[in-house]
Amino acid sequence: MSTTDAVIRPRPVPDPRLRLFVLHHAGGSHVPYRAWAGHLPPEWELCLLEAPGRGTRRGAPARTADELAGVFLEDVRPWTDRPYAVFGHSMGAIAAYELTLALRDHGLPLPCWLGLSAVRAPEHHPRRDGRRFDLPDAELRTAVLEMGGTPREVLEEPGLWAYLEPILRADLQLAETWQPRAAVPLPVPLSVFSGDADKGALPHLMETWAAHSSRFVGAHVLEGGHFYLQPDPSALIHRIVTDIRGNSVPGGEPSPVEGTL
């Protein structure tokens, strides 16, 4: 699969004014995010990234944030010729943050906005003694069911579980063993999001992401748990569009007029 083929565009836009890259959660895929295209401004293009090991993407699942960020860096590289933004949820937020650091390290154009959802700031990332990715089969199924986002019938159907289990274990290992490096704050507008019932992403912990961007936009709390963006993402997408329009222009410089994008 070429890097250009790796980017999934549910509604291709011939000459987009902005590309929005969306990175999915642990155990997930790009599929739940395809419907976002219908909520975006018509001149914006939705670009979905798929982690290795699922769908048509070959290869073993990534087990570290650096590995996944490296894969996504090559995916995004050909598409940085115009303004773009990046949003990630849960594991996807870890990947989105590390991807942006990698883009900066490689001297590539930075996103004009970064959105991180349902992941604490690096200094508050939980260090678990008992890792979920090492749990026995039955306990892992229970833990995944409690997390939400995965239908019970998927966990109980032997064929689907056989496909999903190695992906889940790798994704959870990535998220639970993430060791963020000390980094200079990004010069990119940064918004963070969480559900009001998500105990793992409490507002005061999300707000500490402010130290990781010189242009922190704010922390937004929406109704719901860890998967507050399912099944209806419209409130989140409205907030994303508002934040991008109000805080970014090509190149990531401050916008003098709201709605330039």
UniProtKB/TrEMBL annotation:
Designated name of the protein: Thioesterase
PANTHER family documented for this protein: S-ACYL FATTY ACID SYNTHASE THIOESTERASE, MEDIUM CHAIN, THIOESTERASE
Organism: Streptomyces morookaense
Gene Ontology process terms (BP): lipid biosynthetic process
Transmembrane segments: none
Occurrences of domain Thioesterase (ranges): 19-239
Entry similarity comment: Belongs to the thioesterase family.
